[in-house]
Amino acid sequence: MWLDGFGVLFGCVVDHWFPPHLTLEPESVRSCVRVLREQNFVPIDFYVLTRVIQAVVTSALMTLSSWLVLRLFNLKIAIIWLAILTIEPFFLAYQRLVITDSLQCEFILVSVLALFLHWRLASGKLYLSISGITMGMAIATKTTTLLLFPGLMAIAVLTELSYFQPIFPKKGIAEQAKDIGIWTLYLVATFILIWPAMWVAPLETMSRLVSDLREETQRGYLFFLGRSHDRINALFYPIVILYRFSPALLLSSFISFLLASLPTWRPRSIYQKSLVANFILILSFIWVVSLPGNKLDRYILPIIPFVALNGAIASFIVLKRLQQYLTDRHPQILSKLPQKSKFSFSTFVIILLAIQVMTIYPFFPYYISYYNPFIGGAKTAKFILMMGNGEGLDRVGAWLNRQPNPQDLVVAGPYRSALAPYVQGEVLAVSRHFGGSWTERWLRNANFLVFYINQIQRNIPDPKVIDYFTRQDPLYSLQLNGVDYASIYLGPMARPEEMQTLTSTSEFIGNDQLQLRGYTLASDSLRPGDSLELTLYWEILQSIPSHSHFTLSLQQGERVLMAIPRPILQGFLGDDPIEAGQTIRDQQFLALPETLPPGDYQIGVSLSPSLSSAEDGLLDIRENTPDILGLFQMIPSED
User: Fold this and answer.
1) How many CA atoms lie within 13 A of 256 on its CB side?
2) Dihedral of the CA atoms 96, 101, 106, 108 (nearest 10)?
3) 119, 306, 366, 492: which could join 391 in a potential S-S bond, CB 3.0 to 4.6 Å?
């Protein structure tokens, strides 16, 4: 995003002139940018300036929006609107993130309100120019802003059909076309001005924007209603609204819908027409954004201020009607209140603020983890909607940094750009696609694996990989609102500190290429039907095929009861040979027959120099006596 890019560049400048305050200490701004490219993530220190800039811009836009609402309606509606919107969990969460959607939402809000005010006043071009400039900034921030245009066009057409009298007077086709031309001119000029690439390569830049828009709407790897999808149906956003909006926003917006649609509920024309105009904008945007198969909950962020505005108008009308009802039917109640109008309004706003604060407080500081508690909250939503946007990864980083020699550890996980700034060691990205060089890189180097909730929901990178590692007990689990958001597991590459806790083998087990350094046994007492959980630590002495096998056997005395060929690390390490000098942590699960009688049993391992397939393993167990690792006991079932 252009504003974030400016913040990072400004951070580079500050770091150049005041190096003690930040960490990179580059010799020049150019070298600073080069370091950022090499790291592929922005250090935390640079986000400080970016967030300050975004906070200033966001605050200014919200202030301007409040003033525009005041001009369009009145002070009471503006106050109610702010009380609903500024503490709305889903809206507030994204305003606190350095993400394109938050500023896009603010720019759209100012642009549309200024355009409404221009249509209302029907004279002058000040608000039209403000609208065009901020819409240009919104499009430069995120190209999905274009999806708002059908709704604006519909309102303009209905204005010329005199539907929106008296709030938007009819101007005539010629005057409306002139306004559209001026508005478009300001939009395009702003867009070009803040995108220097448009100065030198406009066609290539526009082509890239169209490509980005297409990619944004066709990304795939989605989760909805308990399954992973490439395309999601139109039911998605109604469910998102139910789960992500607060009860106060849902109730007030539902009342506003009744006021706008039912003849017996309709208020004065000025308010009813304003409700309809907002609903056209809201519903058209939801309809257009529902057309692509790719859907994310944050895509509807731009409509939340307008939903809140309708809720504020509805609350104001209901409050006035309640006052009128008490005046007509129970005047004795209001007669006891000093300045009854101000008292009742102030009380309502205080109650509304209290409800919103009570709604949002349990989710501090991760407001983005809010899901409507009245329909099951996060515990139910995890089976319906894709959850998690990186919240909680700061705590994951804090746990990793408490491990011995944290600067030497290698971690693989999602959201690398979000996790890496919090981790002292190296962070590798877990790619969506399993297989290829990227998969080999994180699997062949990671000491720890971080699995995030939407990874588990979507089975990224692969269901077999997820199942293999999550069968272990996590070293650390981060819970938010009763749901596991992130879990840390031991990775495939053992650390020196871990090797000190192993049970060593009594004799050399291995060959010229690899050696079994030790093992751990999860339990030495099992019942029929349990699984034997065994972790083997292979030291690679010479380069070996990635799909090398060994034979795991179960014995009682000299009698071999089971002999099962197993690939090292389930064969997940790709096709390239495994390089020497590494120690692989290989967890094996062996399902024991329920008919296995009680007694003492031995675990054996057999490995020959030519063992590289399952067939070789079966031959190997016949020709070579397995080496005994350890013992376990089968105890009778409790049944």
Assistant:
1) 27
2) -170
3) 366
In contact, 85 and 77? CB cutoff 8 Å: no
Q: Which tokens belong to 321? A: 């009607």
First-residue to last-residue Cα distance in the chain? 63
- How distant is the alpha carbon of residue 336 from its chain centre? 52
Q: Could you give the CA distance from residue 168 to residue 165 in angstroms, rounded to a whole number?
A: 6
Per-residue buried b or exposed e for 398-431, using 16+ beta carbons within 10 Å of the residue's own CB: ebbeebeeeeebbbbbbbbebbbbbbebebbbbb
Distance CA 21, CA 288 (A): 46
Q: What are phi and psi of 251, to 5 degrees?
A: -65, -45
Q: Rounded distance, CA 489 to CA 475, Å?
A: 6
DSSP 404: S
Phi, psi (5° rounding) for residue 627?
-80, 135
Tell me whether residue 64 is exposed, middle or buried, using C-beta atoms within 10 angstroms of its C-beta: 0 to 12, 13 to 18, 19 or more.
Answer: middle
Nearest to 416 by CA among 433, 397, 401, 395: 397
The string of DSSP letters for 361-393 reads GGGTT-GGG---GGGTHHHHHTTTB---SSTTH
> Cis peptide before 365, with omega less than 30 degrees from 0?
yes
Rg of the chain, C-alpha, whole Å: 31
Q: Rounded CA gap, 501 and 478, in Å?
A: 25
Neighbours of 70 (CB within 10 A): 15
Q: List average pLDDT for each run of 10 residues in the chain, which is 639 residues long.
A: 57 52 47 56 64 84 95 94 94 86 92 94 85 92 88 93 88 89 92 78 75 65 83 90 95 93 77 92 93 87 96 92 74 59 77 94 92 93 91 93 91 86 88 66 87 89 87 91 92 84 71 82 81 86 81 80 81 78 86 82 74 49 68 77
What three-state secondary structure class fits 411? strand
Peptide bond into 302 cis (omega under 30): no
